[in-house]
Amino acid sequence: MKKTITSRLRRNKILRDLVSETALAPHNFIYPIFVKETGDIERSRWGGMEKVPLSGLVEYLSGYIASGLRSFLIFGVPSSKDSLGSHAYSGDGVVQRAIRAIKASLPPVNILTDVCLCQYTDHGHCGILEGSRIHRNKTLSILSRIAVSHAEAGADIVAPSAMADGQVSAIRSALDEGGFEDVGIMSYSAKFRSFLYSPFREVASSAPAFGDRSSYQMDFRNRREAVKEALQDIQEGADMVMVKPAMPYLDVISELRRILTCPLAAYQVSGEYVMLKEYCKSTDTDERGVFLEALTAIKRAGADIIISYYAPEVVKALREEQS
Ligand code: PBG
Ligand code: ZN
Hints:
Helix content: 40-55%
Distance between the termini: 44 Å
Oligomer: single chain
CATH class: Alpha Beta
Largest sheet: 8 strands, parallel, barrel
Number of domains: 1
Radius of gyration: 20 Å
Shape: globular
Bound molecules: ligand PBG, zinc ion
Strand order of the largest sheet: 1-3-4-7-8-9-10-11
CATH topology: TIM Barrel
Number of strands: 11
CATH architecture: Alpha-Beta Barrel
Order of helices and strands: HEEHEHEEEHEHEHHEHEHHEH
Strand content: 15-25%
Structural class: alpha/beta
């Protein structure tokens, strides 16, 4: 019987590189940014996840663009909230102003915008409430207004994340009617009701004031339902779909990659980011190594696009590896 030696192909780095199956590339990353109206740049207590004032935004982004990042997902952190989340669709809203500033003074980059209400409503839910329930039609009409206002400001892709039934088709129709046929939709199709969102909610002040999001976000026990959500969104007009969070949902990513033909994105969410950061801190483990492993696994599972708070460091790491 011949002895099988598989480690022969692991003997040195150039050989390992030759047979490697997965590679991260800077152009597949999206960096989420938080924009506020005034004040100074604020770093989160875990490092990264900065909140940037409008006045400092162009300078903040130009550094990342110079280092090779090309895609940004904008979250607005408004200074006032109300029951309709009216700041979210105002032409002078923080996101709309941010997009205009970027498009006016920076080289071409992909601007994606989060289309949701939770940062903008006084109750912190992702839709318009009637009593304690989300009112579907009112929510859809407001989400459509938000998307159109982002497109008017110059957004390239809108990313509805409210998990409201019919949001993709409502937004697609509104964009088309407004003359924005070329603005794309990246749907947060398989967005699970997760416990990994709390750092984000702290940074964006978007925690629900009562209850939780389990009546609209997906139940984490379900995979077939994620397939259903994604197919539904594509039928409604989504150009790409997303799985969120990423690491505990690699099976969902892998399944969707097998079935779908459109680009598939995965969101390494704030809780995943903090978990890995804190792990590195408390065990003195190489941070880049840990993140590159996790992000490569997300890509290996089938994600074409990765949204990550670590994106700037990835771009740096990949660059240094090349030189
Ligand atoms: C809600 C929204 C959430 C995140 C972004 N938009 C989740 C939530 O509050 O339920 C979380 C992203 C992250 O944790 O990084 N529209
Ligand atoms: Zn929301």
